[in-house]
What does this fold into?
Amino acid sequence: MNHTRSSQLFQQAKASIPGGVNSPVRAFKSVGADPLFIKRAAGCHIVDEDDNSFVDYVGSWGPMIVGHCHPDVIAAVKSTMESGASFGAPTERETILANMVIDAVPSIEMVRMVSSGTEATMSAIRLARGYTGRDKILKFSGCYHGHADSLLVKAGSGAATFGVPDSPGVPADVARLTLTAEYNSLESVRKLVAENSSSIACIIVEPVAGNMGTVPPQEGFLEGLREICTQEGIILIFDEVMSGFRVAYGGVQELYGVTPDMTTLGKIIGGGLPVGAFGGKREIMEKLSPAGGVYQAGTLSGNPLAMSAGIATLNILKQPGFYQSLEEKSRTVAEGIAKAARDAGYPIYSTRVGSMFCAFFTKGEVHDWPTASQCDTKAFAAYFLAMLNEGIYLAPSQFETGFVSAAHGEAEIEKTIAAAAKCFKLIA
Ligand code: KE4
It folds into this structure.
């Protein structure tokens, strides 16, 4: 497969943009290849600058659940553009999308729009700190919540309960306020809560983890977090930037029946345009400026184009049978890939929640970061490149999630499974 033009463009980009990309995971570093430069997409296909076409399982890292270039989304954005891209003033569309989110997500009584998932989680944490008057936060290793300083933190070594920076540029004094527990381990949460009693403002969790590969919550984990937070007066934040409107119209909290105090959203609610959101109980949200004293703002928050794309997308998701059909397609893809691996005698651990799926290159089970990090990333890279050569575009990292869209048809799914059968044999 010819990638000449993409490689030329990558060299040019590196002269002007750090690492040649505007977000690190796009650089294909963990699979040891130059990234493909994409020039157009439609449905479940993307086409690169060398005119290679691929079945796309990245979907812009989640937003494109209805497929690329859906006519309803194009029409909505086009007509909005003709009346103005941005005013810096309130518009009715913001209230329309806000009410659609409130109607869909069990925990959300009020919601604030922002322009990215990072902005959503950063703002939700500030609001939780302002509401509780507490400074510490608790997150989980292997979970990613965007790149705000207090979230680029890893567990301190040894007995240290405080966090240490996970990136240069994050001050140690900021990192110290972030505690890190193990995903699916209520014991590790209880230990940190006991050691830091009444100083933790919030626990933020991906209720289905998607940033260490796809890792579902084990039985009782989410319920246990809810119980601990209720007992301790800690704000429970479900970061559903990836899982919101993805695994169900009401997200993980609808699917598993556990209601957090706040929820962060992004990706799908923008339909491919930059949108994030954070919402929750009215008594918490009303502490937010200008209603309350917790400051938060954004020039393009609630941008009309992004609102239109989000409204059009959610109107498609609301149609009867949307998620049932997506569930069937997703099951076929994930089970087909797992069978292909078994038939090739190549052990993988396959996970799926709705249309989020992952093949972990490990013999063991995966239920947290320590087990996910055991994966053979070199073998994954070989599989990724072999699948790319077969016209299948997977997430370029073992520690990411694959996404099926409504636009993935029988032919594309069959092609994917046939390609997997060939590629597992190749690398076995
Ligand atoms: P953004 O700031 O990238 O819009 O959202 C941050 C974020 C927050 N919470 C969760 C659960 C997320 O998955 C993300 C971002 N997801 C990554 C994909 N793993 C975005 C891809 C990228 O970083 O380019």
